[in-house]
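Narrative summary of target 7.
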Amino acid sequence: MIRILEMEKIKDEEIFAREEPTSNVSGVVSEILSDVKARGDEALRDYSKKFDGAELESFLVGEEEIQEALTKVEPEFIEILKEAAANIRAFHEKQVSNGFMMTKPNGVVLGQRVIPLERVGLYVPGGTAAYPSTVLMDSIPAKIAGVSEIVMVTPPGRDGSVNPYILAAAFVAGVGRIYKVGGAQAVAALAYGTETIPRVDKIVGPGNAYVAEAKKQVFGLVGIDMIAGPSEVLVLADGKSNPAFVAADMLSQAEHDKNASAVLVTDSMELAKAVAEELEKQLKCLKREEIARYSIENNGKIIVAKNFEEGIEAANRIAPEHLEICVDNPFDYLGRIKNAGSVFLGRYNPEPLGDYFAGPNHTLPTSGTARFYSPLGVEDFVKRMQYSYYTKDALSGDFDKVSYFANKEGLSAHARSVDIRFGKEQRD
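Modeled conformation, tokenized:
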């Protein structure tokens, strides 16, 4: 049974408490990274056999395999993929930013260029956790940004094939190269490059603890999107909310894995008790009941606030990955939300709508990092380059100030580099 806590009677640690994964994977991942760096494709083949049970001659997914996969996917699903892709594209096209240039009367020119990354690696989980939605969410913003090449990696099945729904999504999104490799070894291949898999500039996409740790360890050599933790949802609901709706939305995240977190914050004890009963009822109907039940009982909670304002404060402190605001007038509260990955407004906007179809990205900051991280977007696939231009006359008006500033920091060579242009090579 889920815990019901009254806001005024609980401590901060109870608000934020959740069971954290305890697996110690750092050393194993470090060894895999070093091995792939040293042995390249040979190491990848060994790990594919060891972890995936697949013996591969080639990692590249050929055009014939993609076309064959399309015949295995229902035409209705392909049409849904296309419509979802159109929604995602329309939303993310609004995120495109341009550079700028500014000039001053003395001839100074200052500016900034926005430049797409050359090559991006996209990690897509496979097996029982195959998410074609991830292909769309992570590749479409990259293409809008102007990334020259997207290299997708995904684990193979024991027969060496790739999940056909993953390949269908890649086809719809227009992903270029796809390789059959997963786990920490795939991250290593993207970070270092091998004989067949090219090195990339940035790696994005979710994965298990080994993938997350590998991304963490290669960060600095390549860019990464974020270190994603277990999925989470916080439902902020008033007393008029339908308890069946709220429970269903909480379970939609609880079924992800045992470490997922589903939280209800409400100003109604009546709703809290009704949702607790509804959770128990709906859990018995789930295919993934064991996972969802563990999540609800160990990481789930219902927090009853004195009023809705206190509930908003709690939501901002928790900074959830997904935040639902289930009230009649949700836009009245949107401006008060400071920390959340993605916000779902209204009683008929369940979080799964954002997972698959609405358009906003579903790759989101978790574990409270919404306080300083943002959802994946077009801006994650570009870099900014700034520039400046000074004429001699322009510099003559400022060089003494620059020199003075440099000397205050004890950097005389900095001062000399401007002074020397005007015959003042020595200053007291």
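The mean pLDDT is 94.
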